[in-house]
Amino acid sequence: MEGSSATLAGYGMGGSWNHGRMPESPEVQELANFLNAHAAGRTIRTVDVLLPKALKTATPPIGMLVAARVAEVSRIAKMLDIAVESPEDGIRHVIVHFGHDGWVLWHDSAPDDLKRAGEATLVARLRLSGDVAAGPGFDLTDAGQWKALTIHLVRTPSDVPAVAKLGPDPTAPGFTEAEFAEIVAGRRKQIKALLQDQTALAGIGNAYSDEILHAAQISPVVHAALLSGEQVSRLYRETRAVLLGATEARRGVPPAELRASKIAALRVHRRTGQTCWRCGGTIHEYSFSGAAAQYCPTCQTDGVLLEAG
C-alpha cells in the first residue's frame, strides 16, 4: 500500500475456533515472498520484543540483531525463517511461528513509538534501514486470546524443536506418492488429524485439510489405515493440487488482502449451510477438540452426519 504508514497483513479471530484465519503454508509462503522483496538487503536498526514470553531463546540476546543485515526470508512449513547476517557472528535465523492468530504488519515508515497499530497485540517490532530517517519496518502481532506466536533466534533452523520434528512438505517438488503412502499406511489416526499433524506432513492446518478431504471425497474421520490404495492415491493428488493451487492463487496478493483472499477461495471450510459445489447438497459442520470443521455428507460420508467429538 504505497504512501501509507502501515500495511495490515491481516489479523486472526479470538476464541477457540479459528475459522480459516490460521496462517497455513500458502499464505506464509506469500508473506515470506513479500518480506523477502521488501526487507532483504536492509540493515536492522532496532528490535523490540514487547511480549517477553514470545521469545523462546535467551542466547544469543535478541539485541544482537541490531546492525545485522536481513539476508533472506523464506518459509518452513507454517513458519517464517528470517535469515540475518553480521560480520561478527555470521548467519543466524529468526524463526517465527504464528500459532493460531499471529501475523505481520508492514510499515513503509516504522513508528518511533511502540504503540500497536491496529487491533492485535504488538509482540515485536523491527525497524529497518531505508532511504529516509524513518525507514521501513514490520511488526509481529497476535490477535488471539492466548498469544501463541513464538520467536526463536538460532544458529540453524533445526535448533528449533518444532522445525526438527517436521515431516516432509507435501508441496516440495520431489515429494512423491510413495512417500505419501508410507506416511498414511497403517496409521490408526483419523485422516483429518493426520493431515494436520506437522510431524507427519508440514504446512497443513484446519482450513486446507477440509479443502483437501472434500476435493478427494474422503471422510475426515476415517482412519488412515482404512483407506484403499485408490483413495490414498487420490488424496495425494488432491493434497498437492489444493496446496499448490492456493499458493499460486496467493502469489502477488498484497499482505493486507492475504487472509481475505484465502477465505474467499475456500469451497467447504467456513461454508456451513451453503451448497456443495460438486453435488448440490448442504455443507455441514462438526466440532472436535475445541475446533470446528466442515464437510459434505453426500460427497464424503455416504450421507452420514458426523457427531461432535
Automatic annotation (TrEMBL):
Domain FPG-type, chain residue ranges per copy: 267-301
Family matches, as PROSITE patterns: FPG_CAT, ZF_FPG_2
Cofactors, names only: Zn(2+)
Catalytic activity: Hydrolysis of DNA containing ring-opened 7-methylguanine residues, releasing 2,6-diamino-4-hydroxy-5-(N-methyl)formamidopyrimidine
Keywords for the protein's UniProt record, in alphabetical order: DNA damage, DNA repair, DNA-binding, Glycosidase, Hydrolase, Lyase, Metal-binding, Multifunctional enzyme, Zinc, Zinc-finger
SUPFAM superfamilies: Glucocorticoid receptor-like (DNA-binding domain) (SSF57716), N-terminal domain of MutM-like DNA repair proteins (SSF81624), S13-like H2TH domain (SSF46946)
Keyword Cell wall biogenesis/degradation: no
One matching Pfam family: H2TH
Domain Formamidopyrimidine-DNA glycosylase catalytic as annotated: residue spans: 23-130
InterPro entries assigned to the protein according to its UniProt record, in alphabetical order: FPG_cat (IPR012319), FPG_N (IPR035937), H2TH_FPG (IPR015886), Ribosomal_uS13-like_H2TH (IPR010979), Znf_DNA_glyclase/AP_lyase (IPR000214), Znf_FPG/IleRS (IPR010663)
The UniProt record lists the keyword Iron: no
Family that this chain belongs to: Belongs to the FPG family.
Listed name of the protein: Fpg/Nei family DNA glycosylase
Organism of this sequence: Microbacterium deminutum
Origin organism lineage: Bacteria, Bacillati, Actinomycetota, Actinomycetes, Micrococcales
